[in-house]
Design brief:
- The chain starts with 13 loop residues before the first helix and ends with a helix.
- With about 550 residues, it is α+β, with helices and mostly antiparallel strands.
- The protein has three domains: about 70 residues, no CATH class; about 80 residues, no CATH class; about 300 residues, no CATH class.
- It has 21 helices and nine strands.
């Protein structure tokens, strides 16, 4: 459609030109600036090499040679959508209005819900504030609660006296031994919530006791490495000693859980893979095991030193077969000390009983491990390490007999027989038998002793222990007390883990005692089940060490 009159007579209207351009843009894009006038539009067309042919009603390329689309009104009508009718426009508007209304409703509902929740929360908070202001009405204590308060407060006062008047030393305090003291602390921790029913003044005493213990414990932990000496280690052994006989056993899975726990207690994350340790505990040829796994051992020594700079060491538990009339196995340990470059071989019987002359007594098969250490040194060299360990046999590690009269190793007093006619020991109401020997536990004690004294020669550390041990023995006034009480107390480390598994429902105490006495009852189904549960716990403890 063209103008009928005026100066633009015969020319297309601006709307028609825009329509042509829109049609053109479907095919070839020409961008019209927003708010462009008629003259601006004509100028844009010229820039794009187009003119308006008003007579033909078309956009025509300026250069006909150029391969450009000629846009006619007919073409525009073909490519552009047909304008909507009035009815269609009204329908589209109604749809848009409905969508807007729906969205507005949803927003309103959401806001209302948020406001309602806020009001509820505010009301709840207000009720809580009001309740606190009003004060909680407490019912009078019953007789059981009164007795519990009295017991807890008396125990708390004993703990306070221990720290404030006795400097934290068990000896001379209200407690007979460290075990009794730790049990009291455990009881107090378990009463933290219940004690809040006691009078306020008594609560203050209770929490003061726990605070003193916590502060003392934290302080001791911070300075443990600095203050640890052979004497402090031995004193702890004495503090934890007990005449009570516990159902400890050194069966393979039990040995494994003790090994894992000793690593955890001493934060020593250096070890052969657990499966290798498990395999070694079931074998009785340590020389072959060490040679077969020399490369693995060498790699772990290098890794351990790199990560800890000699603060931690690799330990390999060993199990030897008795060659005499005595049936069974015997525990030792081998420690690779990178502080002194020594491979220290520990024998819990010490030096004198190491190779006894008496027929049928303990005779160890293949005790000299020098060839195995040489193989490990070869592997270290292959791995381009400068490490070269000197093998220290038990004869080198244990102090000379000339230093001590009637010298014995750490296990030297274990063979004291029970007095004839003495009653069988009772544990939690059940009759038990004492372990035939504590070589495994003494080996782990030696390991702990060395892990805390790595910078000193093993022979010096062992000799110092022997000196304190002999002094302690000479001071035992009670003839009914034996040196065995030291290792019996140490066995609580093992029994604490076993009791935890019992309390968790893994197995019963009766099942554990059956497991322990497998040589008599031959209940292999129970033996495998209990052993597997102990082994799983050993693995958990072991992994906790390496995962920090």
């Amino acid at each position: 459609m063209v103008y009928k009159a005026g100066k633009l007579k015969g020319e297309l209207t601006t709307a028609e030109i825009r329509k042509l351009i829109r049609a053109h843009n479907v095919l070839v894009s020409i961008k019209i600036p927003k708010g462009a006038s008629r003259d601006d539009i004509i100028a844009v067309l010229k820039e794009n090499k187009y003119i308006v042919d008003h007579e033909a009603g078309a956009l025509v390329p300026i250069e006909q040679r150029m391969k450009r689309n000629k846009i006619t009104m007919t073409k525009a009508n073909e490519v552009l959508p047909k304008p909507k009718t009035k009815e269609e426009r009204l329908e589209a508007k109604a749809t848009r209005d409905k969508a807007k209304a729906t969205k507005a409703k949803e927003v309103l509902e959401k806001e209302s819900k948020i406001k309602a929740t806020g009001v509820q929360q505010g009301a709840a908070i207000q009720r809580l504030i009001s309740k606190k202001k009003a004060g909680k009405k407490t019912e009078p204590l019953n007789e059981v609660e009164k007795n519990r308060c009295i017991k807890a407060i008396n125990n708390a006062r004993s703990v306070i006296r221990l720290y404030e008047k006795n400097g934290g030393k068990i000896k001379g305090s209200d407690f007979s031994n460290k075990k009794e003291f730790m049990e009291t602390i455990k009881d107090l921790n378990e009463l933290k919530e219940a004690i809040k029913r006691c009078p306020k003044k008594e609560q203050d005493i209770f929490f003061k006791a726990l605070s003193l213990h916590k502060n003392k414990k934290n302080s001791e932990e911070k300075s443990a490495l600095k203050k640890t000496t052979v004497k402090t280690i031995f004193d702890e052994l004495v503090d934890n000693s007990s005449e009570d006989i516990l159902p400890y056993t050194s069966l393979p899975d039990s040995s494994l859980i003790m090994y894992a726990e000793i690593l955890r207690r001493n934060k020593n994350d250096c070890s052969l893979p657990l499966e290798l340790i498990r395999e070694n505990m079931k074998k009785t040829e340590p020389k072959e095991f060490l040679k077969d796994n020399a490369e693995v051992i060498a790699k772990e020594i290098i890794r351990c030193f790199k990560d800890s700079q000699g603060k931690k060491v690799v330990v390999v538990p060993l199990s030897f077969k008795n060659a005499g009339k005595q049936v069974g196995t015997h525990a030792n340990a081998l420690l690779f000390n990178t502080n002194l470059m020594t491979a220290e071989h520990f024998e819990p019987h010490g030096r004198k009983d190491y190779l006894p002359a008496r027929e049928g007594w303990l005779k160890l098969k293949g005790v000299n491990l020098s060839s195995s250490i040489n193989e490990i040194n070869k592997q270290l060299k292959k791995l381009k390490s400068d490490f070269k360990f000197k093998y220290e046999a038990p004869l080198d590690v244990c102090p000379s007999e000339s230093m001590f009269k009637d010298f014995k190793g750490v296990q030297g007093f274990d063979n004291i027989p029970r007095k004839p006619g003495s009653p069988d020991p009772i544990y939690k109401g059940l009759t038990i038998r004492e372990a035939g020997g504590y070589c495994q536990l003494w080996t782990y004690f030696l390991l702990e002793l060395r892990l805390k004294t790595l910078s000193q020669p093993a022979s010096k550390v062992y000799a110092e222990y022997a000196r304190y041990r002999d002094i302690y023995k000479s001071n035992l006034q009670d003839p009914n007390k034996s040196m065995k009480r030291l290792i019996r107390g140490y066995s609580t480390i093992y029994m604490d883990m076993i009791n935890r598994l019992i309390n968790e429902g893994k197995f019963s105490l009766e099942d554990f005692l059956k497991y322990r006495n497998i040589n008599k009852n031959k209940d292999f189904v129970n033996y495998k089940k209990v052993g597997a549960d102990i082994s799983i716990e050993a693995q958990r403890i072991f992994l906790s060490v390496f995962n920090k």
